[in-house]
Please model this.
Amino acid sequence: MAENLLRNYPLVVWNRSREKVAELVGKGAVEASTPAELAARSEVIVSMLATPEVTADVMLGRGQYSGIGVLDGVNRGGLVIDMSTNSPQTVELLASMFEGKGCGFVDAPVMGSVQAAAEATLTILASGKLGDFEKARPVLEKMGKKVWYLGDVGKASSLKIIFNLHLWLLTASFSEAFALAEKAGLDPAKTLEIWNSSNQKTYISETKGPKILANDWKAAFTVELAIKDLKLLTEMAERLGFQPLLGNVVYQLYQACSSLGYGGEDFASIIKVYRFYNMR
Model:
């Protein structure tokens, strides 16, 4: 995503892990020493951080980032685009704080794979004041093939959590059915071939099925990050008075997957929970 921005704009970069910006610097980006320095040198700030807690710390200058957060250096009239998967409350707080500094704010989480990010074909969900969104749109369009405007700040983050719920449910249901096929003595490769040649084919069966066959657990997105997303789901559902019956079950399945030692593996590793309990 950053490389796609660098092809179109002068780019100042900062990361909690400095080694992760080295390649970008080698391609022409300028490294800032702190989030505040990055903000001071930027008209538009794009953030993507792992958790709501880290987002709040880095963006608002809390904890170890006290006095050096983005808010400490932001320019009046600037724009902040947060592309993390965040809770609606987190982005509402960010919007309020940055607007207090005379800065616009848009939450714009993304949908798509690492390949889609590299190819600038992500689907981007965006919300905030319409004027801020229109200012953000050209930047977002450098990273995604489709940008959807959803209204007030927080709406995009809510929909991202909902879409992620569907993804984790789809992954768990595929894993349960595929593990049952293994237990029944069916040939796994032929089962998957038939699966993906039928109306049962899904994004998960096409992309994660081959990884499961190959026992390839290299993470495109880890189990621990799936747990983070499911925690956001349960918090959002509780605030809304909604009972996510299947969501609660898949949350427990992913927690079990982590407890078995697979937290750093790809989220398709949830099938190992079924194998652990059923293949012994």
Summary: The chain has a mean pLDDT of 96. The chain is about 55% helix and 10% strand.
